[in-house]
Amino acid sequence: MALQWFRVPKDIVFGENSIEYLATLKGQKATLVTGGSSMKKYGFLDEAKKQLEKAGMEVSIIDGVEPNPSIETVLRGANEMITFKPDWIVAIGGGSALDAAKIMWIYYEYPDTKFEDLINGIFPELRKKAHFVAIPSTSGTASEITAFSVITDPENHIKYPLVSYEITPDIAILDAVIPSKMPPHITAHTGMDVLAHAIEAFVSKNATSYTSPLAIEAIKLVFSQLPVAYKDGENLNARQDMHNASTIAGMAFTNSSLGLVHSLAHKIGGEFGITHGLANAILMPYIIDYNRKESDRYDEIEKLIGVKNLADEIKKINKQVGIPLTLKEVTEVEITEEKFNEVLERMSKNAFDDPCTGTNPRDSCPNDVQEIFKAAYYGTSTKKI
């Protein structure tokens, strides 16, 4: 029997105003990494800087991380760190800022790292120069808890999920006040990302007795609290439950991996720039119907959370939080039929080759992936694939 692990950050600090925990860190210098706009606008970046200065540290800021962080952004940030020499890297913001900071950390400690090695799962041993704190502003990616980072190659339109326990943060800080400023559509997209993480972790080929209870708890929290957080963003109880759900689902999937929902979402995101959580939300029902031929784990979810048909319930939630049921109805980016069909074969092959495909509960092939994409675009059934 192959050895398995369950690993999460050493410290998970949660609750209102838990950002103040930064003042307890020991070190000389800290670098804050952020996307910039919302964390600056609502004062959270300044608050993080203040708390680090309370700890007696000199602070630098790397901002401007884009929604789909590129290797160029990673290298820019790493070069700034090499000059500044921080003891702590503190990422604050959405999943993109956290993901980018993780890979900046690698290039800061090992400037000669080859990106191809990271794609192939070859990672150096970290914590030679710095430790890592993650403070999420969204309740969705769970990057604060995971061994995952997603970096985009804009030239080839590919998102690469990079996976290693080395990039699991040392400390995760979950302050519900921060995501309370998210607008409703981001609340919806990130919340459905949580649901995709939890469901895929539960049905994964690598699911264990450690990961499955966490996945179910996250599913329950999303079903009960996402519609509340979507309607009333200032409801801190709903926000804290969704923030916790994100992290709990992250604990599950970082140790069990994911499946085709994420494989397809990564690649259509790379091609069209569609928000990751939005893509997950639309794809989930189609992939659930596809996977049920070879997995009874969805039946278990339905029994445990008290619903009759999981795919139908996800569609209901999508409607409640303003998410369309097909890819062709997406309005945040343009996915024309002509362009969709032009990239479909390449996109499907890339999705099949995604690392998440290996733990999907049903074995697939590029042709099946192509048919799923088409079903999700046009709104047709995947039950006969």
From TrEMBL:
Protein name: NADPH-dependent butanol dehydrogenase Bdh1
Family matches, as InterPro entries: ADH_Fe/GldA (IPR001670), ADH_Fe_C (IPR056798), ADH_Fe_CS (IPR018211), Alcohol_dehydrogenase_Fe (IPR039697), NADPH_BDH (IPR034802)
Sequence ranges assigned to domain Fe-containing alcohol dehydrogenase-like C-terminal in this UniProt record: 187-377
GO molecular function, one term: alcohol dehydrogenase (NAD+) activity
Residue intervals of the Alcohol dehydrogenase iron-type/glycerol dehydrogenase GldA domain: 9-175
UniProt keyword list: Oxidoreductase
Organism of origin: Acetobacterium woodii (strain ATCC 29683 / DSM 1030 / JCM 2381 / KCTC 1655 / WB1)
Top EC category: oxidoreductase
CDD domains reported for this sequence: NADPH_BDH (cd08179)
EC numbers on record: 1.1.1.-
Pfam families referenced in this protein's UniProt entry, alphabetically: ADH_Fe_C, Fe-ADH
